[in-house]
Amino acid sequence: MTASTAPASRSLVDRGWDLGPAAVLLLLGWLGTGPAAAGQGLPHPGAAVYALVSLAAVSLAVRRRAPLPVLAVVGSAITAYLASGYPFGPVLLTAPVAAYAVATAVPWRRAALAGGVFVLVTALPHALDTDVGWVPRLAWVVGWTAVVAAPAAVGAAVQVRRRADAGVRAEQGRRAVSEERLAIAREVHDGVGHGLAVIALQSGVALHVLDRDPARARELLTSIQATSRESLDGLRAELLRFRDPAAQDAPLRPAAGLPDLPALLDRMRAGGLVLHDRVEECPDVPAEVGAAAYRIVQESLTNVLRHAGQTPAWVTVRCGPGGLVVEVRDAGRGPVGSAAGGLGIPGMRERAAAVGGRLETAADDGFVVRAELPVTGARTP
Q1: Helix 261-270 to helix 214-243 angle, to the nearest 10 degrees?
Q2: How do residues 64-90 score in pLDDT, each as one tens digit?
Q3: Structural domain boundaries, residue 365
């Protein structure tokens, strides 16, 4: 079924659900009221009685749009029908349908009050008939109450279920929005944070060599310009996603991956970081796994700049038997104090987990970040 025909089909189903019971009860009232009267030894009903039967049945066609007014119309028609001397007939079947409609749409306090008034009013004509003994009259009141209350209870249960389902859907929607915002915050933290750390390092080196090596300073300033432009492009892309979530389906730039690692390492070296690397060529790596590996290396090197100073770092990317292994090691102490509780390490763990992998950190003659990312069966983050 296409998107254009689905609303029309649902509309037809809704109309059938609205008109179907009303039409059935109308037909049953026309065909069954006369035999019901004859079976009770009563004269054949006149036009006024059939008008009441028709009014009660036809009003059910709008029971979902106006449940309380429909209940009032049905109650008035049944009361007038019973007062005319015809206590039993198909018209009574309209009561449980109207009661169910009220219970599914109206808050339970109002629905209970309306149902109680409905039972009281419609039961009175027969309950006050002194020509019948009190036992039959009591039996009528109890039975009639049960006939109305049973579908009302079912309708109330349906309403509770609908509200619970709506609450679950709303919570899922809020969770999805929260997760998307967290993902955007993580991207901004990793991209912009890395760019600022590299810019700070390169600008410091540029100031140091400005007088004695202008060419080197110019080279560093050029690198700073490129890094700042890349960071601003990334920030602009993420802010666009934040303003318009549909924009994430058409990103402004492709996600960085394993082929972009050499450029990342060169930028870090240009800033003065002593960096050793062993990056193997790993074919058939899914794009989401490559992007996670790139961001993990990027954030790890950013932490080296922030917390390890000018100590050397080693980057290893290799294809292990279980998938891609990424390791970044430095000779510093790693994040300590409040820095250890920041967004960097938790964000890297989330990236690894999003593709079915895991990430561990350790302080062992320096600081080590090690991630194992499966190449097969990766989940899209």
Answers
A1: 130
A2: 889 999 999 999 999 998 888 776 888
A3: 256-381
Chain center to CA of 26 = 43
Q: Which residues contact 365 (CB under 8 A, 6 or more apart)?
A: 331
Distances (CA, A) of 282 to 265, 303, 324: 17, 25, 8
- Domain boundary among the residues 132, 147, 170 is at 132
Say how far apart CA 37 and CA 135 lie, in whole Å. Answer: 22
Domain's final residue, options 89, 105, 132:
132
Predicted local distance difference test score (pLDDT) of residue 264: 83
Q: Is residue 177 assigned to a domain?
A: no
The answer to whether residue 273 is domain-embedded is yes
Tell me the CATH number at 261: 3.30.565.10
CB under 8 Å to 256, separation ≥6 — which residues?
264, 291, 294, 295, 298
In a domain, 112, yes or no: yes
Name the residue type at position 209: V
As a whole number of angstroms, the distance between CA 29 and CA 53 comes to 6
Residue 18 lies in a domain: yes
pLDDT band for position 122 (50/70/90)? confident
The structure tokens listed for 171 are 């919570």
The residues, ordered by sequence, that sit 6+ positions from 238 with a Cβ below 8 Å of its Cβ are 184, 187, 188, 191
pTM over 0.70: no
**Helix%, strand%, coil% for the chain, nearest 5:** 70, 10, 20
Per-residue pLDDT tens for 11-63?
655 666 678 888 998 999 899 888 888 887 788 888 998 999 999 999 999 98
Q: Report the number of distinct structural domains present in the chain.
A: 2
